Amino acid sequence: MTAPIKVLLVEDNPADADLTIETFDMSKLKIELSVARDGVEALAMLRGETKDSDATIPDLMLLDLNLPRKGGRELLADIRGDERLRSIPVVILTSSEAERDIVESYALGANCYVTKPVGLEAFQQIVQAVEDFWFTVVKLPPSRQ
User: What averages of pLDDT result for each successive group of 10 residues across the chain (145 residues)?
Assistant: First the structure.
């Protein structure tokens, strides 16, 4: 039996988080999805500082840019500055189409930048495309604790 693919979704919008969860639940792949509502919570989960986390490094992170407390840019900078976390593939999944956000995200070490579409079906298609690409085409680094 193959180990589940571990995904950390960092998203403060409950509707977008629920839709992402539902889309991954329909997957044929075994995906273990954790959700953090902001950058502070995500960093605590990654470092094993929450009661529910064990500092398991995800195989992929889906990161919104505009988050409360610690935003996506700051979280990405923290991850890329941490030797234990820096190899996590990070997909920016955000509503921003601003060129500045795109350029800054890549400069901070994002692996790709995806703009959230408007509409239920379009959003599900984007999440499915991310899943298909990252879990069937791309070779991810081995799972790490």
Answer: 82 89 83 91 86 74 92 94 92 91 95 86 83 79 60
Q: Which one-letter amino acid corresponds to residue 142?
A: P
CATH superfamily of 5-132: Response regulator (3.40.50.2300)
What is the three-state SS of 37-69?
Answer: CCHHHHHHHHCCCCCCCCCCCCCEEEECCCCCC
Distance between CA atoms of residues 145 and 119, nearest Å: 37
The predicted model scores a pTM of 0.87
User: Which helix (DSSP H) or strand (DSSP E) does residue 20 occupy?
Assistant: helix 14-25
